């Protein structure tokens, strides 16, 4: 089906694996198209209630393929390739986990930042590699990085371009948790399945309006909350949550 990625679903989770291990999963034009297609498929599939993005081999993603660009207009490479992918990641109303198995460099780091959660192997690292090839952070990096780690640290990472370990990333608040490489896949699976069994519609609404809150004032956010709660309050999962509470049992959420 796909040439540069793998896509599979199990237990309510869609797994997207960047699959160019000999190039440390560097992005190509084909990979952009395939990522967008996979994200759209995962977004539409009602059985899918969480998405995991990871890399094959020893890397998560090394950013743009430095040997393979056939478009000299980098602005267009971003508009046509990276930006739609980042927009898809943000607008998919399901939790998206970056399972950072190894190095995440350049736009590979941006990809991880655009996800809702980052779970890192203790072998993972992060590097704002752009500056080493005379470029600026892109693919949402200038948006997400300062929001995640603060302006001063973001400037330091982006301008100095020093590689940071998974543990350092955890200390900065960049990753949710760091997991031993031996149990990495199992731990990611456990986390993803946990999310896939939660009230999916409520998670989607949290994601939508938390993203919007960055560009909104308090009155707008109060109204977003009212809109979101009206929707969440009419879901089967809300009814199930309340019923389970009253019956003193664990709720079984279906994502409806
Ligand atoms: O269109 C546009 O260009 C605009 C958009 C730009 C977005 C960006 O992402 S710009 C930033 C691009 N990425 C980089 O600059 C990172 C380049 N890679 C590295 O700095 C290092 O490879 C890593 C820090 C990621 C890992 O280092 P290390 O020592 O673990 O591995 P390595 O030996 O450098 O790489 C292993 C192989 O992967 C090697 O190939 P070889 O020698 O075994 O045949 C290397 O050339 C290849 N590789 C790694 N990254 C890329 C790559 N090949 C093509 N493109 C890459 N990005």
What is the percent of helical residues?
40-55%
Physical arrangement of strands within the biggest beta sheet? 1-2-3-5-7-10
The total of beta strands comes to: 10
Low-confidence segments: none
Task: Describe what you observe in this structure.
The chain is an alpha/beta fold and 256 residues long. It has ten helices and ten strands. It has a six-stranded mixed sheet, sandwiched between helices. Helix 1 (29-44) runs parallel beside helix 2 (74-91), helix 3 (107-114) crosses helix 4 (141-149) and helix 8 (200-213) packs antiparallel against helix 9. It starts with a strand and ends in a 10-residue tail after the last helix. The model has no long low-confidence stretch (mean pLDDT 97). Bound molecules: ligand T3D.
Q: Can you describe this structure in just a few lines?
A:
The chain has 256 residues and is an alpha/beta fold. The protein has ten helices and ten strands.
Features:
single chain, 256 residues, alpha/beta, 6-stranded mixed β-sheet, 4-stranded mixed β-sheet, binds ligand T3D
Question: Topology of this structure?
Answer:
Blueprint: E1 5-10, E2 13-18, H1 29-44, E3 50-55, E4 59-61, H2 74-91, E5 96-100, E6 103-105, H3 107-114, E7 117-121, E8 125-127, H4 141-149, H5 151-160, E9 164-165, H6 166-171, E10 177-179, H7 184-196, H8 200-213, H9 218-232, H10 236-246
Parallel strand pairs: 2-3, 3-5, 4-6, 5-7, 6-8, 7-10
Antiparallel strand pairs: 1-2, 8-9
Helix pairs in contact: 1-2, 3-4, 4-5, 8-9
The structure holds ligand T3D.
